[in-house]
Structure formats: C-alpha cells, structure tokens
Predict the structure of Peptidase M14.
Amino acid sequence: MRRLVSAFLVFGLALASTATAAADPQTIPNGPWVQDSQQVRLERLHSYDEMVKALRQIQRQSKGRVSLETVGRSNEGRDLYLAKVGTGPTKVLYITQQHGNEPLGTEAALQLLQRLGNGGAGWDAILRKVTLLVIPKVNPDGSERFQRQNHDPDCSGAFCTPGVGFDVNRWHDPAVAPEDNPVPEAAAVQRVAIRYQPAMVVDYHHQGSYRSDDGDLITTSIFWPNHPDAPAPAVALSRQMCLAIFDTLMHYGFAEVSQYPGTLPRGIARNSYGIRGAGSVLVEMRGDIGQKSSGMLVRTAYATMGALLESVAEGTVFTLDPARADEIPLRGDFVDDPHEE
C-alpha cells in the first residue's frame, strides 16, 4: 500500500500562510486553527477566487482527467465546486473546510488533484479502481472571513450563531432534504452524496493542540460514525478506513494519531454519511499553529488522502480488522500553550 504513498509525500507541497485571526478553543467538536495571540499571514493560502483559478488550471492541464462542475452556491452566491478524477467503480468523496477557519485540508486537496491530474502508471492504476470526488472549501463565505460559520447573519434556530451564521457541519442530517436545508453549503454536499452514492466519505477539519498519554503533541485525530442509526457494515468500513490512515501515518513516523472524541448529532457529516450507509471518517488536523508547522500538516493530510485511495484500489482496506480501531490511542489533554516547547 505504501509504494505510491511515498511518492505523495515527496511530491512538492506549495504551502500556505495567513492574516491575523482569532477564535476561542472549541474542542467538542472541531476547533479553531489559530489562537488569539498568534500573528499568521494568510496570503499564501488560497482565497476562494485563487482556489477557483487553481481548480480550472488543474482541469486544463489534466487534459480531461480532472473535471469540474458546480453543485450549488453559498449563502452569498459563490459557486461550490465538485472536482472528479478517475473512472473506477468505488467512489470516494473528500470534503474540506466546512469551517471557514480550518484551511489546510483544502490546500492538501488541491495538491492531490494536481498530482492525480498529471497521471502516471501508478496513479492510472488507482484511478481505474477508484473515482475520487472532492468538494474543496465547502464554506467559502466563512473562509473569506476566516470564521467557523457560514455567512448568514439573519440565521435562527439550531446551530446558528446570531448575527454570524450557521455551523455548516451540523446540517447534513439525512432526515432533512437538501431542498429544505437552510444551509446551502451543506445542502450541496447532500446532493452530491445522493447523486453519486460514494462508498466512502472523509471530512477534513482542525482541532486545538492536544497531548498523547506519552506527552507527544497530537498531529491528527480520526473517528468513525458513533450514532446508533449508522448501520453496522458502514461503521465497520469506517473503522477500516481509520486503520488505513492510522497505519500509514504511524509507519512514516511524522504524525502522532489519536481517536477523536466524537459526539452524537445526526447532522455531523461523519455521522450523517455513515447513517446513509457509507464508510465515513472525520480527520482532525492539529490547530493552534502558525505557518512554521503548516507544511507538515498539509503533508499529513495529503498522506491520508493518498493512502486511503491506494488502499481502496489494492483492496487492502477491506482486509483490516475493524475491531483493531479500538486500539488507536485516545486523545489526551488540551494544551493551553502549544508553543511552550
């Protein structure tokens, strides 16, 4: 499984930096990317317009390997894009930046699409087995403001911050039809899931900084659906996906991986798409960092994306023992000052 993952890791990663942002730690669930005291420049992260330009360039340079379509619009009217690459029967959906201030999954997804668009024998073999679907920067209005919520100051009701907007990652409940969903960004992801019926869904976020029981800083936390309505086969597949990610990252030694202490709401993407019957995984990258550590985190997210695709194409993910996921270490204590070392 790790032959092509090694190539993913050595592929050049053009990284992102940032504008000052502030956020209070929110650890259940998800969390801020930066803290109040940090000065971080955002110029090298892709803005929405820059992301669209990059996607179109990837499409052109791929000579038809990568296709784009719009699958909805944000509350402020920005187009939401779906990128597709591959012709395989197993569909895998990656979604990034549901929370606007959690950006590095988007950067990793753009680099992944660029690499797959370039092709090569190994990649072509994977993409004959897998069709990859990517919705990058699901919350473009929030990303432009570097805030967690979408932009809907008139919102009301559940998971609304008055005067700001909705938490997009609370509005994927299968019981809410896309046409009835008050959060257009979540509704777009729902429509993609209904239309393409992906076998696997992976949702990328950031959390705060935490330590393992051994005192090491956690770089990545992962988790599967834990809502009781998620069918057992979907939960088992989700656990296997977590193990494919865990085994790869721990093998390369540049990541410290833990279980994320996931909560139960049906509208969280991790639970919702598990309830729909897909393997569904949350990937939480470490937050509370400046640009010095961002390259490593993009590389880590990029490795999880590549490892899962390769594992699916080779079929090894389906041979993993789902029960072994319980051995992934639990996340430790929150670090009040992640810069103390």
About this structure: The chain has nine helices and ten strands. Residues 291-314 form the longest helix (24 residues). Residues 2-327 form a domain with the Aminopeptidase fold (CATH 3.40.630.10).
